[in-house]
Specification:
This protein is an alpha+beta fold. The chain has 11 helices and 21 strands.
């Protein structure tokens, strides 16, 4: 039996998919197999989670273990998705600081690859981690707490150190969000107003196909107490308010998108772009993303726009979002307030593979770092230069997985191959 990722573009080499029922069984499975991996939700687009050994699924490990109101934290099992967690958190009057575009992904998987949401003052999803429990290659349990010497290196671990069985996240009191969408923001507005545009709401996303010198949609998500200033705006940096709900892909039905037009809703019903009950895809697709310091957003946008003819045949849509700096070793946002350029491609890897080097060359002057779980062709040597803590991370790999039980060709190429 073969196993594929979320979009169907990658077929894994795993020989078996096992569902452990206890922590003891999980530890024993890790001990007895020479190659193991956790597939998570399968929402990666490259070989980062591949293995020629066995897949150990934590899909049924999806409980909330403890909501600690005094500490303002929630501890969850390693297989829970954001959609499952958020609904229960909201019922208890609590919230996460941010969400990714999709609620369908697992908490542990999103953290491991430094997946993010949006907002100039919001750190990535991994930035909410306060503690985690990991099973290493010998089947031994380790707990890492914020402030521990190795904590900043373990959180974004790329699946290279072991299996995450528990995660403790920081929570905040529940809040409501109003979502407003604007149309046709000129790219030229980023030259003088980028900071104001991206900080104008709790979360801001710019969408474009790069075929015109404008972003066809701007999605702003404001906390209810800050949203009144948006109501009735006829002009927003040259963009105009949408009069009906929209999908980021023009022409597609907006019914699977979270509610717009300023109607207040709970945080988990607005921060993601897509509703939990719908499959948020235009069909088979590929994804890439590149992260750089925020001050480069205008010049980088011009560089991508210059490639519009090459992008036109294969690009569905591109999204720009900002993310606050963190101190996590393998984070693309390590010590820099960042902007991420995301690309959703048509399912044509042969064509995308030809365009990616052109795109990466255009973004190279801005020291763009690729998203670990998406498609890129950046050489390993370049990644080594961009992630200064990789040598320290290699020491963690040697400590917790000296024989490479959790490794694969991806990690051998981009991480181990640099030693």
């Amino acid at each position: 039996m073969s196993y594929q990722n979320w979009s169907g573009n990658y077929t894994y080499g795993a020989t078996e998919l096992i569902y452990p029922e206890s922590i003891e069984q999980l530890q024993q499975l890790v001990k007895q197999h020479t190659k193991v991996k956790v597939p998570g939700s399968g929402h990666t687009f490259n070989s980062i989670t591949d293995t020629d050994g066995v897949f150990i699924s934590l899909r049924h490990w999806n409980r909330i273990i403890e909501l600690n109101q005094e500490q303002q934290t929630v501890t969850v099992e390693g297989g829970i998705t954001y959609g499952e967690l958020c609904a229960q958190l909201a019922e208890s009057g609590y919230a996460l600081h941010n969400l990714a575009s999709l609620p369908h992904i697992t908490v542990a998987g999103a953290i491991a690859t430094s997946t993010h949401g949006s907002g100039s003052h919001n750190v990535s999803l991994a930035g909410a981690v306060q503690a985690l429990e990991l099973i290493d290659a010998n089947g031994e349990l380790h707990t890492f707490q914020a402030g521990d010497e190795e904590f900043a290196g373990v959180v974004i671990h790329l699946g290279a150190l072991g299996m995450i069985t528990k995660v403790t996240l920081r929570v905040v009191p529940a809040y409501q969000i109003r979502q407003f969408v604007y149309e046709n923001l000129p790219v030229s507005e980023l030259e003088q107003h980028a900071k104001a545009i991206f900080s104008s709401a709790y979360s801001v996303s710019l969408f474009t196909d790069w075929q015109r010198p404008s972003f066809h949609q701007v999605w702003t998500k404001s906390r209810e107490e800050d949203a009144e200033s948006y109501a009735g705006r006829a002009d927003w940096y040259g963009a105009t308010p949408a009069t009906a709900p929209l999908h980021p892909l023009p022409g597609m039905d907006a019914q699977n998108c979270t509610e717009q037009l300023g109607k207040a809703g709970m945080w988990h019903e607005r921060l993601a772009h897509f509703r939990m009950e719908f499959t948020p895809s235009a069909g088979k697709e590929l994804q890439s993303e590149y992260v750089m310091a925020r001050e480069h957003v205008y010049e980088a946008s011009l560089a991508v726009y210059a490639l519009r003819e090459q992008l036109a045949p294969i690009l569905f849509v591109s999204e720009l979002r900002t993310i606050a700096a963190d101190e996590l070793w393998l984070s693309p946002f390590y010590k820099q307030d960042s902007v991420a350029f995301h690309f959703t491609w048509k399912d044509n890897w042969a064509a995308v593979e030809q365009v990616l080097p052109l795109l990466e060359q255009a973004l190279a002057p801005f020291q763009a770092r690729p998203h670990w779980g998406k498609l890129f062709t950046v050489p390993a040597e370049q990644l080594h230069q961009q992630f200064e803590k990789l040598p320290d991370f290699l020491k963690l790999m040697q400590k917790y997985d000296p024989q490479g039980k959790f490794s694969n060709a991806y990690l051998d190429t981009y991480i181990r191959g640099l030693s």
